[in-house]
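seq as requested:
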Amino acid sequence: MENKKLSIIITDDHNLFRKGMASILEDFDFIENIYEAGNGYELLSLLDNTHPIPDLVLLDLQMPEMDGMEATQKIREKFPDMKIIILTMQDDEQIILHMIQQGVNGYLMKNADPDELEKAIKKVIQKDLYFPEDISKLVIGSLNKKRKTPIITELTKREIKVLELVCKEYTATEIAEELNLSPRTVEGYRTKLLEKTGAKNLAGLVVFALKNEIVKV
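struct tokens:
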């Protein structure tokens, strides 16, 4: 992670849970600053008033005043590059799929162990997305039920190849090496893919690729 230490906001309406999470995060040597918010309003206020802006948000879904769904929407409007990992007890596949389509970078259950939390944070920072195997199976199962005729008429062969590599969790640099392109050119392809598919981030691109059978599982 290039020796950069991270700043993280824990957003949950239960004080004891936040304190427990903070205690776990303090043991990760790559985390420097830990902030806490009790709901979406407090989270947005922190993002507005913390400089430099934190790197990642751990976000519960069920909170008073402003829940995680609304907070995600407002974050994506104002801070489109903010990394968001949902940390919740909500395992409904429709909610999970909705949050991925809204642009979250990861989705973890609150009963995940600290090692998986550490892995998720590192993956999201390095590669923009992380979903544990059980969550991935839920999402894929839901997409399989709804899958229709593929609608990939506007993607070029090169864009499809870049999308396939995105789904394999290649970074822009790794895609550039694979396709003999410059990283800047790859970023251009990824930006164009986001525009064409309507996805909000790389996680959304993966959902699009699965839904349209660009990648097989």
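The beta strands are 6-11, 31-37, 56-59, 83-88, 106-109.
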